[in-house]
UniProtKB/TrEMBL annotation:
Gene Ontology MF term list: oxidoreductase activity
Family: Belongs to the nitroreductase family.
Keyword Oxidoreductase: yes
Keywords: Oxidoreductase
Name this polypeptide is given: NAD(P)H nitroreductase
Classification via InterPro entries: Nitroreductase, Nitroreductase-like
Domain of life: Bacteria
Domain Nitroreductase span(s) in chain numbering: 14-192
Length: 212
């Protein structure tokens, strides 16, 4: 029964998510709750558990004003949302691998010999990858985080909108990030909907699935 309730709740969250563009501009989500949602979304999987997602939370009038000229046709989301989350992929996330794996050993989640073997492989391979591969891996993993964040936000009672329409070549520098290291992935607006998003149509599973 418990698993059934959990499954029903999750299905409700997935089916109830909408891309909302107009939010209640007077509603503010606390920093504590945004931190909580980011922590929950960070349970998403990633290559070698390197967790390359990095998040810039823009929730001040000054930050929103700086972001405004970079969001193209998405100004309504920027102006009315409680916050805009700028999702980046860290192409040097392997620099954190020793901290991650050592902590896993300390918490009894990984044998020390597995850590040692994995570290040797990761630290010999990842730094030598071509930059375009590092960017691709970071973007894929960070997209998993982004989708999970939107579902987490829905579970917390909030609405979101993912956006790819922004000045990709300017946003990292505008918010004081190393443009060579941090690859822009997407922006996500979050808040309480003032106008409900439209329910959209999806192709059937038969149309998108190939059985072999």
């Amino acid at each position: 029964m418990f698993n059934s309730i959990q499954n029903n709740d999750f299905t409700h969250i997935v089916k109830g998510r909408r891309s909302v563009r107009h939010y209640d501009e007077n509603f503010k989500i606390s920093k504590e709750e945004i931190h909580e949602m980011i922590s929950e979304a960070s349970l998403a999987p990633s290559s070698a558990n390197l967790q390359p997602w990095r998040v810039v939370v823009v929730d001040t009038p000054e930050g929103k004003e700086k972001l405004r000229p970079l969001v193209r046709f998405n100004t309504l989301q920027n102006d009315t949302s409680s916050a805009m989350l700028l999702i980046f992929g860290d192409t040097q996330s392997y620099l954190n691998v020793e901290e991650i794996y050592n902590t896993a050993v300390e918490q009894g989640k990984m044998p020390a010999e597995v850590r040692d073997s994995q570290l040797k492989t990761i630290l010999s391979m990842y730094p030598t990858l071509p930059q375009e591969i590092k960017v691709e891996v970071a973007k894929i993993d960070s997209s998993l985080f982004a989708m999970q964040f939107m579902l987490v936000a829905r579970a917390h009672g909030y609405d979101t909108n993912p956006m790819a329409g922004f000045e990709v070549d300017q946003v990292a520098k505008a918010f004081d990030l190393d443009e060579e290291r941090y690859a822009p992935v997407m922006m996500i607006s979050i808040g309480k909907a003032k106008e409900d998003g439209y329910e959209s149509v999806r192709l059937s599973s038969d149309k998108i699935t190939f059985w072999r």
